[in-house]
Specification:
With about 450 residues, this protein is mainly α. It contains 14 helices and 12 strands. The chain has one domain: Glycoside hydrolase 144 (GH144) (Glycosyltransferase).
Amino acid sequence: MKLISSFVFIFLFVIACSPGRQTAGAETIAGEDTALFRLVQQQTFQYFREGAEPVSGLGRERFHTDNNYPYHDKNIVTSGGAGFGVMAILVGIERGFVTREAGRKQLEKIVRFLETADRFHGAWPHWWNGGTGKVMPFSKKDDGGDLVETSFMLQGLLCVRQYFQNGTDEEKALAARADKLWKEVDFNWYRNGKNVLYWHWSPSYGWEMNFPVKGYNECLIMYVLAASSPTHGVPAEVYHEGWADGGKIKDVNKPDGIAAGYTYKLQMKHQGDAWNGGPLFWAHYSYLGLDPRGLKDKYADYWEECKNQALINYQWCVDNPKNFKGYGTNNWGLTSSYSVKGFAGHAPTMNRDLGIISPTAALSSFPYTPKQSMAAMKHWYNDMKDKLWGPYGFYDAFSEQDNWFLPHYLAIDQGPIVVMMENYRSGLIWNLFMSCPEIKEGLKKLGFNSPHLK
């Protein structure tokens, strides 16, 4: 790929610092870093613009610039990752990466696809064929509704509604269509008659996937949306007995090894063997729209939980107990991503740290760890660009230990970079989502406190 010329880089700097592009209350970014911050955001955004599947307008599940995958994968679009892309398009409009009209037209194409593509009691599948709208099984029995991935899409659609609801006639019509899709999701169906939400339902296999969702993981947003739905809402007991497992969510994992002495503490039990916090995307996916700043309930202070998870992840890489090559203060971030062998949920434990750094982990953590995230971003761009940088920003994952650098991207990892960097800078997506009246009511119903509820 051609390198960005000095002229273009200076031009980006001027645009980034020009009047009217800053948002009131935005975080201050040092002048010498502003152009790089904007460049990374803009280049990553193009995954969902230039790299979008042409018929649906949605983000592709994955994209490999070396064409090292079956041809049919180019047609796979994803409800969750593309939902993050919907929010990224709003960021693109606001930052001038795309015109308001062009962004609106792409969102209209996306909404048209969502209206006509396969749905199951209002919920979308994890994967579709982007050209036909037909479900593509994520696994043998995962060929129906995926309520978690649907919730990631709904988070984006509600932001679209809020962004355009007072605009032109065309914009108001788009907002109304997004609202209709939100109201058609039958959260109550996905209880399977119990006080918990189930991740999957299939028209062929029913509830055989048998995955009741209990925290703590990336799924808090699903429960907030379910409680907030004005048409198919669920009672508060579903949250407290299901997600919070009758209060057992507060049974904190005992830290192991080097992390036992960390100052940063977790308040909730992270699923599985996540002694020091699960893959770092758990601090991102639910919080692209749901603002963790000051968000509290009887189980946790969610800002503290997310910030401490990110700091533990960072400190683990600095301490580097497995002595992997390259780890350090400017090279960190363990999350689910591509791995040397397939795909893995990288996390800061001896078993789950495989020597794989995933740029999305640090970049999507900008709100929690701005200095540490900036140091990583500058190192990757200034010192490793020839190995890590491509048409849609930094590649998904790499390992200096194994000399493993592949030009591969995943929608589910690219989207949070754009959105969380913007939330750090201006709070745009947080403010849009938290302005939804039904979200405010849903949070109150579940016993949450937030500055947005005052």
